[in-house]
């Protein structure tokens, strides 16, 4: 008598099937795939390295910038205070405020009055740290896109880094200028109705700063994703990632004081709370930058756009070979032509 047939696989219960379907649906959503790509490419580790380099580059840039400001603006105390306030708006907690909270006393930086030997050393340190940060940023963004290092000449890459760094500096100066101008304009308008020192003036100032910071973030991220990295990202696919990154950087700028104060309340790091808070803030900012890059990378991959020139050429060659094979199957002469071509290659 024949044995019984092997038992069929037991079907999962409706509840398990429903949970599985929901889990698969969630994993197909773009935000989830963006964060998965970010984690798979070691995004948090890359961001930590960028934050560490960025902190030292920021200190060197402050020393050089204030050394120049101490010479140019030595007789204009009001403008110096406005510049300090605008820079504090970019990186909260970096410069001491009126309550003495901050990492660097602006009076110490401005008191030099001349471009001293220490400022020259700081300038060299700025070049080294800034160029190092830009090079690491290029490598990190290309890693998120799963692309190899560019094959461009080393000196040419450094020239690109220098040009982008100078562009970032010009963008920051433009932000400071616009911030001062907008503060004066809003103060003058509110002064007409005797509300210059009101809560409304504070809210208007924060809104204007956020708008300017958002614009600065867009400029920086476009330069970082499209030009510094050397990745030929289509302009139509650049927008969403840039807007996400700029929005995240603006939110961090607005919440920066909360991060700094949170670090100050931790008894383990209270003696160096400001530095720790700044490092945390820089780390979050670098993570936002790489998450924006991951969004663009996933979007580009979904649309089948090849960003690696070698991979694009391989795809073209494979498509051509496939077309020739199909032509050879339909046409015997095409088959002989294909064999002759492969013998020549």
Total E-strand runs? 0
- Main beta-sheet strand count, sense and barrel state: none
Compute the number of helices.
13
As a percent range, the share of helical residues equals: over 70%
Unreliable runs: none
How many domains is the backbone divided into?
A: 2
> Could you spell the SSE succession in H and E letters?
HHHHHHHHHHHHH
Structural category is mainly alpha
Radius of gyration, whole Å: 28 Å
**Percentage of β-strand residues:** under 5%
Query: Any idea what the shape is?
Result: globular
N→C terminal distance: 64 Å
Write the layout of secondary structure elements.
Elements: H1 14-28, H2 30-40, H3 43-72, H4 77-90, H5 106-110, H6 117-144, H7 154-192, H8 199-228, H9 235-254, H10 256-264, H11 273-302, H12 309-330, H13 332-344
Helix pairs in contact: 2-11, 3-6, 3-11, 4-7, 6-7, 7-8, 8-9, 9-11, 10-11, 12-13
Task: Write a brief structural summary.
With 345 residues, the protein is mainly alpha-helical. The chain has helices at residues 14-28, 30-40, 43-72, 77-90, 106-110, 117-144, 154-192, 199-228, 235-254, 256-264, 273-302, 309-330, 332-344.
